[in-house]
Amino acid sequence: MPNPNTPSSLVSSTPIVLTIAGSDSGGGAGIQADIKAISATGGYACSVITAITAQNTQGVSAIFPIPVEHVSHQLDAVFSDLNIVAVKIGMLADADIIKVVADKLRQYQPQYLVVDPVMVATSGDILLENSAIHALKNALLPLADIITPNLPEGAALTGKPLPKSEADMQAMIDDLRLLGAKTVLLKGGHLEQDENSNDLLILPDRVETLSAKRVNTKNTHGTGCSLSSAIASYLAQGHDLERAAFLGKSYISQAIAHSDELNIGKGHGPVNHFFEGHAALR
After folding, report:
1. Which of 19, 53, 122, 223 is catalytic?
2. How far is CA 236 from the centre of its chain?
3. The Cα angle at residue 249 between residues 246 and 250, in degrees rounded to 5
4. DSSP 8-state secondary structure symbol assigned to residue 161
5. Among residues 10, 112, 169, 233, which one has the fewest Cβ atoms lying within 10 Å of its Cβ?
6. What is the pLDDT of residue 226?
């Protein structure tokens, strides 16, 4: 319940972002990374958990999908009470969960929808069942304002070969537009031979390149989750889609650049979501 002493203009302007995703017990990706990224970029995060993973920096050892009726109850709980401006979707695990999420989004009509089509973890573990990809493409992606596939996800969604160069990324543009989302951010982070990490922002009428200097680090766990959450956070704060994508790219690039300041786990460590706060403490 709002504080009666708080101005109504301040209450209504709170940029609330809902993340719908899986839980990462290691804290580096999934719901945990989403909440960190949304908070670090100025949004208020709420969540709907779709699956519980047994996961750390070295990989995923087990996945337990949340019963679909409880996913539905979580969605009703947050949408019926909170003024959710933007929704970020990550891991959905199976077709039934994808369908209920799509139905609830049509029911509640949030202003912005960001979909990170999570299929493969940084460690290489498969996070989305093959049977669910059809439901994702048909029920959910056409509702999105922006989707944020990496190169393996882009290949899986389009049936194209895995891009080996930026020219291959360019060749995927038309097929990605056919998925039905308003905008696509195709992430080029997997082209590790390139000096820069270039992403293609595929708008309806043009393509922009978002570029950042590539950082030599193994601490990249949760980058996709964090980027898509940051974009949703900036959308909720009133930025247009192109600006939100630019700000999200800038945020995640800095979080990666500062990731070696953390010493978390034995494998692919997380990015440094709160790099600004950590810098202030030094």
Report:
1. 223
2. 14
3. 85
4. P
5. 10
6. 97
| pLDDT at position 150 over 50 | yes
- Residue 182: pLDDT above 60? yes
In the set 26, 30, 189, 222, the catalytic residue is 222
Distance, first Cα to last Cα, the chain: 38
pLDDT tens figures, 37-48: 999 999 999 999
Question: What's the total number of domains in the chain?
Answer: 1
Residue 10 lies in a domain: no
Does the structure show a pLDDT above 60 at 279?
Answer: no
The C-alpha atoms of residue 246 and residue 174 are separated, in whole angstroms, by 22
Active site residue 183: no
Residue 6 lies in a domain: no
Q: Which residue out of 53, 148, 220, 249 is catalytically annotated?
A: 220
**222 has catalytic annotation:** yes
Residue 187 is a catalytic residue: yes
* Domain-embedded: residue 1: no
Token pair of 13 as six digits: 């302007």
Marked catalytic residue, from 225, 248, 249, 269: 225
Summarize pLDDT for 86-117 with one digit per residue, the tens.
Answer: 999 999 988 999 999 999 999 999 999 999 99
One-letter identity of residue 272: N
- 223 labelled catalytic: yes
pLDDT at 119: 78
Choice among 30, 43, 224, 269 that is catalytic: 224
Query: How far is Cα 234 from Cα 189, in angstroms, rounded to an integer?
Result: 21
pLDDT band at 75 (very low <50, low <70, confident <90, very high): very high
Angle in degrees, CA 269, 41, 109, rounded to 5 = 110
Domain of 64?
A: 15-276
CATH number at residue 96: 3.40.1190.20
The residue behind tokens 């309806």 is 204
